[in-house]
Amino acid sequence: MFGANENCESSSLISLEQFSSMTKNLWRNRDGNKHIWDMFQALDPTDKVFLVLEDLEQARKQVVPHLQEWRLREAFRQTDKDADKRVGFREFREFVTQNMENNLFLNRSIYV
């Protein structure tokens, strides 16, 4: 998961700086499936190989607590193409790639 939390094992945590670094590296490297996979795994601490809204809510609380919850829910809804309340890696990769191309992912103003 993101951030430092004394109640969590440090091996499963990444900092906001590490996440930002992965994102910037992905932007530079268009063949960034490895970086996208690393981000996906960071959001999936139990290795279920899919994300649920609760996974993203936990990350939001630790990394971008000022992000409005409704924005997170809407992003999840749009990412969950098959509406099964799970986001698999393919859906996640498509979301990240699309937002990188539109430069939305790096624009902090969308989080306010």
TrEMBL record:
GO molecular function annotation: calcium ion binding
Keyword vocabulary terms for this entry: Calcium
Gene3D superfamilies (UniProt xref): EF-hand (1.10.238.10)
Domain of life: Eukaryota
UniProt KW Calcium keyword: yes
EF-hand domain span: 71-102
Methyltransferase keyword on record: no
InterPro entries given in the database record: EF-hand-dom_pair (IPR011992), EF_Hand_1_Ca_BS (IPR018247), EF_hand_dom (IPR002048)
Protein name as it appears in the record: (California timema) hypothetical protein
